[in-house]
Amino acid sequence: MNDMSRLAGSAIDVETPKILARNVNVFYGDTHAIRDVNVDIANNTVTAFIGPSGCGKSTFLRCLNRMNDTIDSCRVTGSMRLDGEDIYDKRVDPVQLRAKVGMVFQKPNPFPKSIFDNVAYGPKIHGLARSKSDLEEIVERALRRGALWDEVKDRLHAPGTGLSGGQQQRLCIARAVATEPEVLLMDEPCSALDPIATAQVEELIDELRRNFSVVIVTHSMQQAARVSQNTAFFHLGQLVEFGETGQIFTNPEDPRTESYITGRIG
Ligand SMILES: Nc1ncnc2c1ncn2[C@@H]1O[C@H](COP(=O)(O)OP(=O)(O)OP(=O)(O)O)[C@@H](O)[C@H]1O
To answer: ipTM above 0.95?
Structure first.
C-alpha cells in the first residue's frame, strides 16, 4: 500500500507520475555530472534526493525546472516530462515552467522588497490577480500556506529581509507557492536554519504535499526519513537506488546505499 493513502480527505493520484525522467545525462563542459538517470516523481509525495557531496543531487534537481539553462556550459540530454509534456521542448517558456515547478534555495533569498511584494511578485508577473483585493487574497493564502501569516499579518509592508532566517525561508516558500505551482523543488531548504525553524519548515513540507509534489535535496538522512515518502540515492552522478523511504533506510538493496546510510561513504 502506498503511503499516500494515509492522507485523508484530499483527491490524491499517486499512480500517475507527475514528472517522468528517462535516460537523463547532464554535462558541464566535459564533466559528466549525471549519468543515465531514470526516475518518477509521484503526485502529492515528498521525494528526497540524498547522496555524498558532488554526486549530482542539485544538478538533477535543477534540471526539473530548467534552472540549468542559466549555466552556459551545461548540457542536458534525455527525456523529462511534466504531466506527459516535454519540459525541454523548444516551445516551453522556462519562465512559465518555473511558475509550475517552483524552487526554494538553500539560503533564504527574499527580494529587497516588502513581505507583501515578495509574495505578490510572481502572481503579478503571471497575471494571476484580477484586482487589488484578489492579489491581497492570493498573498494571504500563500503566507498561510507558508505558515507565516500569523507572524507577519501586521507588518506586511515591512522589508522581507528584516525577518529572521527561518521566517525568511518560510517567506521564500510562500513566494514559491503563490503562483500555484504543481511541483516544489527545495535545495537543502533547512541548511541555514536552527532546529526550531527546521522543524517548522519540515512540518510545512508535510502540509505542502497535499497540494504539490515536493522534491527535496538534503544532506540530513534524518530529515529525509522524517519528511519524505520516496528517496533517491545518488552516487557519482548515478541514481543508485530509488524506492520507498522506509525501505531505503531499513532494507537498501545496493551495498553503496547501505554504506552511505550507515555513514561509511560520504
Ligand atoms: N556550475 C557548474 N559548473 C561546472 N561544474 C559543476 C557546476 N555545478 C556543479 N558542477 C559539478 O557537477 C557535479 C555535481 O555537482 P552538484 O552540485 O550537482 O552535486 P551535489 O550532490 O548537489 O553536491 P552538494 O551536496 O555538495 O551540494 C560536481 O562534480 C560539481 O563539481
So the answer is: yes
**Ligand 1 nearest-atom number relative to CA 237:** 14
The three three-digit cell numbers of residue 84, written as one number: 506527459
Beta bridge partners of 77: 25
d(CA 39, CA 241): 10
What pLDDT is attached to residue 4? Answer: 38
What is the per-residue pLDDT across 69-101, written as a single tens digit (0 to 9) for each? 999 999 999 999 999 999 999 999 999 999 899
Report d(CA 212, CA 82) in Å as an integer.
Answer: 13
pLDDT tens-digit readout, 186-218: 999 998 888 988 998 899 899 889 988 999 999
Amino acid letter at 58?
Answer: S
Residue 178 CB coordination number (10 Å): 28
Ligand 1 centroid to 59 CA: how many Å? 6
Pocket of ligand 1 contains residue 31 by CB under 6 Å: yes
The Å distance, Cα 51 to ligand 1 centre, comes to 12
Q: Give the class (CATH, top level) of 3-110+181-261.
A: alpha beta
Phi first, then psi: give them for residue 142, nearest 5 degrees: -65, -40
CB atoms within 10 A of CB 58: 20
Bridge partners of residue 32, in order along the sequence: 27
Q: Which long-range contacts (CB under 8 A, 24 or more apart) does 187-190 make?
A: 187/58, 187/61, 187/62, 187/103, 187/104, 187/105, 187/106, 187/217, 188/106, 188/217, 188/218, 188/219, 189/104, 189/105, 189/106, 189/216, 190/218, 190/220, 190/223
